[in-house]
Amino acid sequence: MQTVERPRTRLPRNVVLLGVVSFFADVSSEMAYPFIPIFLTSVLGAPVAAVGAIEGIAESTASLMKLASGWWSDRVQRRVPLVVAGYGLAAIAKVLLALAVAWPFVLFARFVDRFGKGLRGSPRDALIGDSAPPELRGRAFGLHRSMDTAGAVLGPLLALAMASALNDDLRTVFMIAAVPGFLGVLALFLVREPRRIERSRASAESSEALPIVGPMPRPLLLFIAASLIFAFGNSSDVFLLLRARDLGMSTTLVVLAYVVYNFVYMLGAYPVGILSDRVGRRGVFIVGLAVFAATYLGFALITGATMVWPLFALYGLYMAATDGIGKALITDIAPAERRASAIGLHGMITGFGTLAASLLAGQLWDHVSPAAPFVMGAASAVLALVLLLAAMPARGAARSA
Q1: Which DSSP state fits 393?
Q2: Which parts of 257-302 are beta strand (E)?
């Protein structure tokens, strides 16, 4: 009697360990992140436009580093050392943040933090893609995002408890936030490099170095183009926190609303990842963009704090349907020997959009209205959605390859 092979559902050890590392790292980051705009504006006296500039520069730094680290990771076929260095810098940045005495010091701390994020991001995501079989990639990235976001749920709650116990001494909160970051770095020493990725025959026979940007499949270029359009309206999340504060919420309620967003994201990322393995990634990603457009339009139109809670929950659904799914989609369609470079290229290009969006959002907030950045965000999501529907094939790029 012929034995029917059951589909694999167990994820590799590396994927689970990287999820644990991201859990600790996000506990660290999210203990600090929700308080940064409040620390800047209330403690250091920075204008909202400076908040937008800091976040835009910080995120674009991460994006630029993603291309460089992705290229180098592909070039030397090693992922783990870059990942260790990146998480270590992010932990050190929390200490620098605690020592800030003016907003330019916060800019430097955020630069170090996002430099570390960029250094680790592409190699880590490529490591997940290298370690997981194609039919489980959505599940693998979904588990990673879910564990990462579990840290984002716990981090703000710990920070709120400590801020209350420490009489809102945010500097001490930032210093304590470095501890779980360093724990995540220690956990990384259990992660192992997968066997070397097989390069294409042409690359293997060539004596030339791997170009930093090389030929990419058309579906990947279309996805990157749509992501760039979307990024031009997807400003930093600090504007969501400032909007909630602008609508009358206290600092505690703002952070709790941020926890709601992360809680929904945590619950949704893994099952949505499994869904993408079954029905295809493109459709799931497009639904996520539609949810983003609805959420940002809601933030533009509301006039009271009551609707902030369901809108943050919707924002969590958007993240669950796009963040890990987008990375899995790139992993599916990028050449194996350029996997980290493709992830880095996507991150770099969208980072330019994020920088522009955050700078423009700060100006729109100050000179037009607090609702204006969210109208811009909703419009960009709709444009990106239309491009994906019209130009990117539903098959081939949608299912895992």
Answers
A1: -
A2: none
Burial of 388: CB neighbours in 10 Å, binned 0-12, 13-18, 19+: buried
The residue extents of the domains of the chain are: 13-191+216-391
Q: DSSP assignment of 112-132, as one string? A: HHHHHHHHHHHHHHHHHHHHS
Query: pTM of the predicted model, to two decimals?
Result: 0.77
Instruction: Yes or no: say if 331 and 339 are a contact pair by the CB < 8 Å rule.
Output: yes
d(CA 97, CA 105): 7
The helix/strand/coil state of 97 is helix
Q: Which CATH architecture has domain 13-191+216-391?
A: Up-down Bundle (1.20)
Tens-digit pLDDT profile for residues 372-381: 999 999 999 9
pLDDT tens readout for residues 144-197: 989 988 988 888 888 888 888 888 788 888 999 999 999 999 999 999 888 655
- Rounded CA separation 319/323 (Å): 5
Contact 282, 388 (CB under 8 A): yes
42 CB-near residues (< 8 Å, 6+ apart) = none
At residue 160, φ and ψ (nearest 5 deg) are -60, -45
Nearest Cα residue to 329 out of 234, 235, 261, 393: 393
What tokens does 280 get? 């295809």
